[in-house]
Write a structure and sequence with these properties.
Layout (H helix, E strand, L loop, with lengths): L6 H24 L4 H29 L6 H24 L4 H35 L10
Helix pairs in contact: 1-2, 1-4, 2-3, 2-4
Amino acid sequence: MTQKPSPAFIAASWVALFTGAIAYNVGLWNAEMELNEKGYYFTVLMFGLFSAVSLQKAVRDQIEGVPVTGIYYGIAWFCTILSVLLLVIGLWNATLLRSEKGFYGMSFTLSLFAAVAVQKNIRDGQASRRHHTKMPDEPATF
């Protein structure tokens, strides 16, 4: 049985996701770099968010006994690791101040972690509602 997450944890997860993603994008908006560089870092963030949520779902499906193909599971891991590596390589080679590199790294990490937490909260909330909704053919229990 899955317990519904607390409203405080749900709110904290959403705040962390928005804080990380908005800070990262505001940093890009204000950065003095070429548009193609900004596009690269934006794409890496979107790729990272999608792959982290996809990995969380694949791992959770396996734990719950939902069939997940090995290729999908492997691709989810590969893409999540690749998004982190692409950010690290991009920042390593960027002509940014170390403080700027740290800012992008931390806001990226916060965004990925928060996206996983938000996905988990949504899934736990749905599972909790399904469990607590009485099916029509079930006898009433008191």
